[in-house]
Amino acid sequence: LAGDCRRYRDFTLPVRISAAPSSAVTVAVSVDPASTARNGVDFSLLTPTLTFPAGSAAPQNVTVRVYEDQAIEPDRVAYLNLAVTSGSATLAANRSQYALWIRDNDFFPPEVVLYQQDFEAGAGGFTQVTVAAGPNQWVRGTAAPLTGFSLYITNNTSGTPPPFAYTTTSTSRVAAVSPAISTVGATDLVLAFDVVVGGEYGSPTLQDFGRLFYSTTSATSGFQPVIGCAWTNNTCVLASMLRSQSLYGYPNAVRRIYVSLPSATWNQPNLWLAWRWDNDADGNGTQPPIAIDNIVLYGRKTPAIETALATTTVYLGPGDSLYAYSSADGDLMVCLVNTGSGDYGCTQVQIDRTGTNAQALRPGHVSAQYVTDKTFLITPTNAISSPYHITLYYTNAEVSGYETTTSQSWNTAPYVVKTAGSIASEFTAPTPTYQMSAVRAVGAYGTTGRWIWGQFGSFSGFAAGAPPPLAIPPIRSNATDQAPQERFFVVSPFAAQLVLWAGEPVHTLRLRTLAGALVWEQAGSYPSGLHQLLMPDLPAGIYLVEAYDAAGLLIGRQKALHLP
Fold first, then answer.
1. Which among 540, 545, 538 has a CA at the least distance from the CA of 502?
2. Quick one: average pLDDT of 363-382?
3. Most buried of 105, 237, 429, 559 (most Cβ within 10 A)?
């Protein structure tokens, strides 16, 4: 999509008129506010007006563009309202609204293609296993009604091309077996393929028919049924196949079959798939036999953590949750959760620095204050402010290097650190721009890595680390030309008690997150001097402590780290 990072598909929804109108009829199409799908984000209505010309009963099409993104979200529905705005026509009862459901197809772990074959470049390593020899054999050719080359049964392998037909007077039982496929690390396998198939049914059994098997043993043995009955059977009852997956009885239709493979096929170093054709010699049967094409095996596979310089572009709309993977190798970079209503649009996610140690964020920082070598740079198209959560992923080697260099524990020390530009540019920035997430969480990513979580309101550079909190100078100063004196100081870090010193009387104390949300407030009369205040239960993080005078003017503001 020009100027947009989203793929899309346009759907046409026909609207029909019962008779040709004597004058043109205009119908307005609008999106109902009750829709859960978001116009412009999940879909776009491209035809807000339909016109039925005078004298024509031809249907008119509503075109809806549905966008493909990486957000993991619930299924959504778009309600499209129809209203006659001019002309002598009325809407039929219960026909004023169309419901378009948009199903989500994003998951974690993500769905990946483990194997695919369209036979255009060759037989793709397929071999034939013969159970009962006969004239009917598997062959790669172009005679089947599928696009280009496919794999099919023929009774003349030397034909030009081999015909898509079988001999019904001689028994043949043959299987086309795929090359070995690795499914290591993959679960929830789904196999899809195109098929055309005829055959013979003599109630209650199938006599000329196809079947689908798998084996994790070898390309010649150990086959277990997926569609149809056991390998040792020569006939199957029709009920052994679901109608939607039937490998019998659709001689004039090209169908796309989807079948979930059993868990025994998951996480296997070798998986063989076998399409078997059986026919008896009774002389009966409906041509053609079986042809298969466009085989795709999908699975859900936990991705590795990216360690190289990498980039990808994702669409981060309002309320979207998504994982960003390297466009080069599919490895995991970050997770983003937009908790606000802002639309960041197409957002570039980069790993812009790599390494397995830690280094200074600013001149003068000591090793315990360093940030990770590996850093991230996130640049949205729409430079807005909208709250979000971010999770950065690090390998065990990257975490171990950070801990060794800083002598800090990943479990307790680092926060997600954000800078105004890239993390690398912060070292030479004239003034510090970095901030740390007000809250933090860490955890394990399987057995191969760790993650760290934070929240902010805009995007730029990110790393993990524990640089010293920035001291913000007092807001007010004396009414003189002299430099301001220290009027407010907070001891950091703090736990159950907040300790502060005020250089003048304080009327109100407030505690905010770095995003500005008020989490605690206490009013009273606090004379100048040292004060200790009991605090409520708060998540660990960095907060802003603010002091106000009786007139409501800000005396001072300071960041303080809370460690429960």
1. 545
2. 96
3. 559
pLDDT confidence tier of residue 484, bands split at 50, 70 and 90:
very low
How many helices (H) does the chain have, and how many strands (E)? 2, 39
Q: Which domains does the chain have, with CATH numbers?
A: 7-105 (2.60.40.1740), 112-301 (2.60.120.200), 310-465 (2.60.220), 488-562 (2.60.40.1220)
Phi-psi region of 234 (alpha: psi -120 to 50; beta: other; left: phi over 0): alpha
List all residues 6 or more positions away from 350 whose beta carbon is below 8 Å from its beta carbon. 309, 310, 311, 376, 377, 378, 379
Is the model's pTM score more than 0.85?
no
Rounded to whole angstroms, the Cα distance separating 39 from 408 reads 48
Sheet holding 25-31, edge to edge: 49-52, 25-31, 76-86, 97-102
| Residue whose C-alpha is closest to residue 86's, from 57, 49, 48 | 49
Kindly state the tokens that stand for 113: 């293609």
Helix (H) or strand (E) holding 31: strand 25-31
| 144/33 Cα distance (integer angstroms) | 49
Cβ–Cβ under 8 Å, residues 440 and 528: no
